[in-house]
Amino acid sequence: MKILITASECAPFIKVGGLADVVGTLPPYLKEDGHDVKIFIPKYQKIDENKFHLKKLAYKLQIPIGEKYEIAKVMTAVSPNGTDCYFIENDKYFGRPEVYGPSGEDYPDNRERFIFFSRSVLEASKAIGFQPDIVHCHDWQTGLIPAYLKTLYSIDGFYCNTATVFTIHNIAYQGLFKSDTINIAGFSWKDFVWDKLEYFGKINFLKIGLVYADMLSTVSPTYAKEILYEESGRGMEKTLRHRTNDLEGILNGIDYKEWNPSNDKLIVSNFSKDNREGKKKCKIDLQKVFNLKEKEGALLIGAVSRLDPQKGYNLIKKVLPKFVNNDVQFIFLGKGDKNIEKSLNNLARKYPSKIGVRFEFNNLLAHKIYAGSDAFIMPSLFEPCGLGQMIALAYGTIPIVNRTGGLFDTVKNFSEKTMEGNGFSFHPPEKENLLKTFKNVLKTYHNKKMWEKLIINALNSNFSWDKSARRYEEMYRKAVQKKKN
Question: Helix, strand, or coil here: 391?
Answer without folding.
Answer: helix
